[in-house]
Design goal:
Length: 251
């Protein structure tokens, strides 16, 4: 595999993470409130929040597997691009990682102790961290474009689109809508990733590892990719089923 092939693989891995985790981010951002048909907002009850998290829960860990794989490719195979992104976007990267950790903590800790105050505190953390995670991710894409204005615009776009994607996945899982809205938001949420890869392509492929090193790592990719694809298939099989009581046990 040459540098161009690795760059394509990186794009696919990042798009896979955005597709899966974007639904979790969007559901987390709207966890406390739901929009009524008349356009007004109402506060969700605790039981409803568990249902929302249960709807997107199967996407969390498979999505993070794609993110870890993408980081491994960026750092291990395309170190020049990774170092440049970290150097220019260091504060955004720290914000991204911090909000990612807090978002996951909110998901896993909210129901670990009884008491409404404990749960409500972690729900607020989950909402704020989900919004910041989406915004910082969009800003990182803007950093890859090499523009502060692009970072601001893509940060806002990411927050909006993840909310739409999360709502679409939850509504589909609850059988309130069909699959078409999910397909539309999936295209919307992955389009910035593809556009950024095209924009940053020359800087992405230069400075890669030697041909011998990338060939050796290609063997590793051949082993790892089927596992990731299996996780992807498992995640979508889980969310394609009607939501049951077991899906909310951990949330």
């Amino acid at each position: 595999m040459n540098a161009a092939a690795w760059a394509v693989l990186l794009t696919v891995l990042v798009a896979g993470w955005v597709l899966l985790d974007g639904a979790v981010q969007g559901a987390g951002a709207t966890l406390l409130q739901e929009r009524n048909h008349d356009g007004s907002d109402r506060r969700r009850e605790p039981a409803e929040r568990r249902v929302v998290l249960g709807a997107v829960g199967p996407l969390l860990l498979p999505g993070e597997a794609w993110l870890v794989a993408a980081v491994a490719v960026l750092v291990g195979v395309l170190p020049h691009a990774g170092a440049e992104l970290l150097d220019v976007g260091y504060p955004v990267t720290i914000t991204f990682v911090g909000s990612w950790v807090l978002r996951d903590a909110g998901i896993w800790l909210r129901s670990r102790r009884p008491g409404r105050v404990w749960r409500d505190v972690w729900d607020v953390v989950l909402v704020v961290a989900s919004i910041v995670l989406a915004g910082s991710w969009g800003a990182l894409l803007g950093v890859a474009w090499g523009s502060g204005l692009a970072a601001l615009i893509l940060g806002i776009v990411a927050v909006v689109v993840t909310r739409l994607h999360g709502d679409a996945v939850v509504a589909w899982r609850l059988r309130r809508t069909g699959l078409l809205p999910v397909i539309v938001t999936s295209v919307m949420i992955t389009a910035p990733v593809v556009g950024t890869a095209v924009s940053a392509w020359p800087r992405l492929v230069e400075g890669g590892l030697s041909a011998e090193a990338t060939a050796s790592l290609g063997i590793v990719a051949i082993v790892v990719l089927p596992v990731l694809l299996a996780l992807q298939g498992l995640a979508w099989w889980l969310v394609s089923r009607p939501l049951g009581s077991r899906d909310t046990l951990f949330f």
